[in-house]
Amino acid sequence: MVVTRHAGRWTLTHRFASAWQYLPFEVPPGACALRAELEYDRSGAVLDLGCLGSDGFRGWSGAARRSFVITTDSATPGYLAGELEPGTWQLMIGLHRLPARGTDYRAAIEISTTPGELHPAEAPEQLPPLTDRPPPRLLPATPGRRWLAGDLHTHTVHSDGVMTVPELARFAAGRGLDFIAVTDHNTVSHHAELATTAAVHGITLLPGQEVTTAGGHAGALGDVGWIDFREPPDDWLQSCEQAGGLMSVNHPYGGQVSWMTPIKRRPPLLEVWHWSWLDTRWTTPLAWWQAWDPTAIPVGGSDWHRPGSDAPPGTPTTWVEAEEADPAAVLAALAAGRTAISAGRDGPVLLRVGDELVASQADGAILAGPDGPLARVRGSLAKFPAADGCHRLVDETDATLALTG
Description:
CATH superfamily of the largest domain: Metal-dependent hydrolases
Strand content: 35-45%
Radius of gyration: 23 Å
């Protein structure tokens, strides 16, 4: 066992110079596992933890973990298993928050050449699929397509969530969702689990990652490879596009994690509806959307992490009109702008179908367009001539029940 140790003090001067600091260590030929641990005073500081191999990205866990293990065939969630290529590796440390006095830190990296000497915690047993999941909701759609209910913003143990990928898939399926995007922070380690888990639990799992910085969060949807969050957002967008993915700005008005970073081009998607829309009578999200880019395709996301702190998956629900229920078809529907958002999976929904607006399960609601109220909805299924711009279903207090671009 070879051990490398680092110790020192990070101050605001370091943070002013760069948000990212690096602690190098050598991986010798024949290494089969490593374990890294970071210690610091958590009473006033928040440090993020990640790893770069000599060939590139090997994982990120932010402030959710203080240690990780990487071996040739397994790794702590958030990190990539595989060959430990010899050369100079680095712990990647994010100086997310520092007190005025700074913070002392200690880091230790153990390298093993003995198989089985180091290993990550055992994964929990696989869960059986649900036998009593809600039936699909059938909504009017363009011939050859159907409306799928989903959520484009969820987290697992691969970042700072509490559910494994199978637990999340089963939970979302039990809430009647057809798809979810798994968007763990600054990592793609969860992608390896998605296809198998989707097949077991009968739900489409869209590869994603939430590119997360102090200046804003972005959803990179699709199997686009790791997006280097240390680069400017225009680079995130270019990388995502070149790999055939889609990018959204997430919770742009979400308290201390609002979007603050300059970006020259607008991403195609905007997370208009997020749990941070605490009172749907507020027009802040709609105003932000129209000021940012009225042509942006509106989507929603629960930002699910754990019970008791976030809205559950499907709150709100993003609807896509797709030919098939697979990741490629969901991405294609998003790119084409065939989306709608509702407060939940089973409540009122407003859809664009051909040259009509279709309101489902919205009897008594008010249809509102860009210039104000237009009509009262009568019956469980009502149709209206479609017009350009954002349209909403609202109640008598002007609280938004559903919307479409």
